[in-house]
Sequence to fold (402 residues):
Amino acid sequence: MKIRSRECATGILVAMLISCSGGKSEQPTTALPPASPAAPAAATSADAYDVTSVADGGSIAGTVTVSGSVQKLPPRKIGKDPQVCGTAERESQKLLVNKTGGLRNAVVVVEGVKRGKAMPAAAQNAQIDQNKCEYTPHVQVMAVNSEITLKNSDPILHNIQFFQGDNSLFNIAQPVQGQVNKHKLERAGTIYVECAVHGWMQGNVVVVDNPYYAVTDENGKFSITDLPAGKYRVRIWHEYVGETTSDVTVNAKTESALNVDLKDLLAKKTSAPAATASAATAAGDANAKSSNEVLVQMLEVPGTAGAMFRYSPENLTIKVGTTVKWMNVSGEDGPRHTSTDDPEWESPQTPAIMPGGAQKWRTPFLRNGESATHTFTVPGKYQYFCETHGMYGMLGYITVTP
Fold:
């Protein structure tokens, strides 16, 4: 199910009246940013899986690790609603590794299983609880074609948004303590979850089409049982490190070992921030030397009501033919942002303003370090916004001169 931005905006406006405090997504019209870690392979329907007894099943068990030295990610800054959220920084949840290298919250999925044991009840009754400005659990698995319960246990507004790839599946305002909404997910894959009000609130839901999965514990250990004998491909996915696959043979009534070290994937990942910083510096140098491209950063800034998301600079005056490049620099635990002047995504609080004959644009949901561009060919005044955070003041203004 996809929801139009203006419908979400109406819900948020009602929420503001109650508590004081984006939308449908299509393929982007600008260049796509680099892909995030891929999701476990999708299936078209849960009906393709048959439940049957497994008398002589085997199992897969092991440990997912990251060997060598692992540097902690920067802590998350808490910048809003201190009466509920507090003010102390919180540890990043994206990379939790114990002293022996065990990696927590890696999701292990056996692919292509068409028959076997029944789906666990927990996977058919998934729930995210928003409690003390945190998502609980941070990572979980649910069955495709089942509903997930979204609960707000806090006495403040939360706005929960689900992303699958570059698409926003839905965006729901929950202003009332104890409020519960349910949403059915009909496609297997990985879901990224974010609160538009409190950007540090992030989570992950992996939707599966068979019951042969596991989430690694605090020591990186996992076990998948009652698996019919055969040869399988196993996918290991982690929200920060990335993903890999391994082929495993399962014999009847036997435990097959699968121990995976993701150090090489992590090495590639940790080299990215330096590359991003270099790219931003290079873009800044290019702006100084040429008027053909201008950099606009998407970032978090302090405000009287707490941290806010903004474009920097918010106001631009450029000449016809100039390209604007938007880059998300909100940090590793920062939220995703967009830039759009497409009337389809506007709301009463975030109107899309552009001169007659101008070309509308809409970037993908950009993660930290990602960017997208648009070239302005028609003189006049433009007002654009972030689909998710426009309601909270993330708007930009561009004047294009001949």
